[in-house]
Design goal:
This protein has one domain. Helix content is 21%, strand content 33%. It has 6 helices and 15 strands. Strands 7, 10, 11, 14 and 15 form a 5-stranded antiparallel sheet that branches. A 3-stranded antiparallel sheet has the order 1-2-3, with no helix packed on it.
Length: 262
């Protein structure tokens, strides 16, 4: 069952077949806002908008690959952002900065799937390169024997590869902006991305070597600084024959991961 009954809520989350139960209650919103006993909590809450903006930036930076996730990854990225904020020892709690550029490795090989991760579905090692000075990424996929190198759980007839490139900015605390105190270093382009999608291939075939490239606009390149991070993502999406004989993607039939962070 899902819903609410006698002070308890029952709900489900994507990626899990379990029903979660939690009780309602806790201090009032007014008490949380003015109570002296919650002063420290309010300082930590002031940093939460930065964590949410960090999560949103990663989501947008992964472009077309984000929709291949099989669970809600946003809370995971929010938690990762909170952990990054705690590494700032120069500013007081409530005003700490979120500096991904100093700890880029935390996103390396991040998987957007729990049931069937990318390395389980596509059993090859793509070669890749990122030129951060031009924001040009190249991914080479070796010859693929779908019978051995592709795990097609739903037995769908087609698949394709998606390569994405995006940028995420560090976030600095700005006391002048009370509504949203965390501002990205790359304001206009934080979370911007581009994606390259291959043709549809048969899931029962021998696929030759493929080279895919994706490049971001020159105006973004000109704004890049040491405070910005480039994310290269790769994903596999499965499809079927849809209306009028066109190949269409199947929802929740795919996988993706962060291939490189620099």
């Amino acid at each position: 069952m899902t819903g609410s009954i006698k002070g308890m809520s029952f709900y489900t989350n994507a990626g899990s077949d379990q029903v979660i139960m939690r009780t309602k209650g806790g201090p009032s919103a007014r008490r949380m806002k003015v109570g002296n006993e919650f002063a420290k909590i309010r300082k930590h809450q002031a940093e939460w908008p930065g964590c949410v903006k960090f999560s949103r930036g990663i989501r947008y930076a992964l472009g077309e690959n984000y929709r291949l996730a099989d669970y809600n990854v946003s809370p995971v990225w929010c938690g990762m952002g909170k952990n990054l904020i705690t590494l700032d020892k120069e500013h007081p709690v409530g005003e700490r900065q979120l500096l991904l550029s100093k700890y880029r490795n935390v996103l390396e090989n991040f998987s957007l799937n729990r049931n069937y991760p990318f390395n389980t579905v596509l059993r090859i090692n793509p070669q890749f390169d990122i030129n951060k000075n031009t924001l040009l990424a190249t991914v080479s996929i070796p010859q693929l024997n779908t019978e051995m190198d592709l795990l097609n759980i739903q037995k769908l007839p087609y698949f394709r590869v998606i390569v994405s490139l995006g940028v995420v900015s560090d976030l600095a605390y700005s006391p002048d902006n009370k509504n949203n105190p965390y501002e990205p270093a790359l304001k206009e382009f934080n979370g911007c991305s581009g994606s390259t999608i291959s043709d549809w291939f048969s899931t029962d075939d021998l696929i030759g070597e493929q080279t895919m490239t994706v490049k971001l606009a020159d105006e973004i390149v000109e704004r890049m600084t040491d405070d910005t991070t480039a994310l290269l993502g790769i994903g596999v999406e499965f499809g079927k024959v849809g209306f009028a004989g066109q190949t269409t993607p199947v929802k929740r039939a795919g996988c993706a991961k962060v291939l490189k962070v620099c």
